[in-house]
Known about the structure:
By secondary structure, the protein is an all-alpha fold. About 55% of the residues lie in helices and about 0% in strands.
Amino acid sequence: MAIYESEHTKFMREWMKAHPEEREEQQKGRALWWDKPQDLQTQGEYAAGKVAHKPYPYATE
C-alpha cells in the first residue's frame, strides 16, 4: 500500500537532495522563528495569570 505524498513534498525532497547546502540555511530560518529557549518561571507566571473563559463569550450574565 502506497502512502500519499503531495507534489510539493516530492519537490522539496528532491530539491533538498540536490542542494544539501541549504539544510543549514533551513535550520537558521527555523531557529529564527521557532526554536526559542524556554523559561519555566515565565511559563508558570503565564499559566497562573490565565482567566477562565465563559462557555459563551457573548453571555450578558
